[in-house]
Amino acid sequence: xxxxxxxxxxxxxxxxxxxxxxxTMVKPDAVADRHIGGxxxxxxxxxxxxxxxxxxxxxxxxxxxxYEVHKERxxxxxxxxxxxxGAVVAMILxxxxxxxxxxxxxxxxxxxxxxxGTIRKKYAKSLEANAVxxxxxxENAEIESNFFFSKTEQF
Length: 155
Ligand code: CMP
What we know:
The protein has helices spanning 4-17, 28-32, 36-45, 60-66, 76-83, 98-106, 119-123, 138-148, and strands spanning 21-26, 49-56, 88-94, 132-134. It is α+β, with helices and mostly antiparallel strands. It has a domain at 17-56 and 87-153: Alpha-Beta Plaits.
């Protein structure tokens, strides 16, 4: 017979391993331009459930930690400055096949290449100010979610 703590631990483990969660951030340009509502509306209309949400501002140091994988790239300094230039909305989203389906919904990183009907096509201004971030793997979705949210803030 499983006790409750073991049952919850096993359920959460299965939940996270099944790849049904992703992490997103509404970036400073989109927050400043009052697109939080429009973007969240597109996300929910596409079948995602918001299971964590937070309006917050990254310091340049925290922005650098979040995007550490890009630290060797020429755009890293600009990216840190931009991502700490204003408030962002961090969210965890739930849906079957969340990572891949969300990347389809947001469209190409460079909005010049984003397809019609995608979030970036509608709201992105440039390669840097591209409205939203979306995790690129289940593993990074979990890391990025835990970067912003404690376990008690994830529903
Ligand atoms: P994002 O999906 O949040 O991941 C890294 C971000 O770096 C990316 O979106 C872009 O906004 C930004 N970026 C700036 N310049 C480049 C570039 N040349 N190639 C890829 N990403 C870039």
